[in-house]
Amino acid sequence: MSEAEIEVCAGVSVSRETFAALKAFEALVEKWSPKINLISRNDLRDIWSRHIIDSAQIFGFCRPSEGLWADFGSGGGFPAIVLAILSEGAQTNTRFALIESDARKAVFLRTAAREIGLRNVEVLNKRIEELPPMNADVISARALANLTTLLEFSERHLADTGRAVFQKGETAQREVEVARNKWEFSVQSCPSQTNPTASILLLKDIQRA
User: Fold this and answer.
1) How far apart are CA 185 and CA 170, in angstroms?
2) What is residue 41's predicted lDDT score, i.e. its pLDDT?
């Protein structure tokens, strides 16, 4: 895939160096996944569009400039490692905290950050609820939990003026409706560029109802 194609697919213009870093990460996922199940076996045939482009589109919706971006349940590095690569390429001052409770996946994330040369990544091998409040400027999560649970995490770790960005499937609207039973928040739903039934939820002003 050329640089022009990634720009069209993800809405993000990248340099040759950034594109090379994304391809290096793709190769690492392909190498490690059979050992520790980072992604499904079927997805190994299409890591680029199913995972890298799907992650990269968040950069266009919620482009960071500085501060702390916390990613919950980072797993195989989607979206956080992809976002960290794009952020370094764009020369932002954003720091990424990747929270992953699985020790093997945390080792993978640290290895990926080191081998790619990312200086803006810290991996925390802990459960989200065990961490002290992070006061994050942005919180993200992909395929981790339902929205009500994610809002519980966000209340603890998101700065008062912060935003949350969650990738959701076809149940997104129903999850928003259920979450409003316990939470007040403003939300913008954006269609996914990679899945016609999926959405990206951008939330702020989160507080208990």
Assistant:
1) 20
2) 84
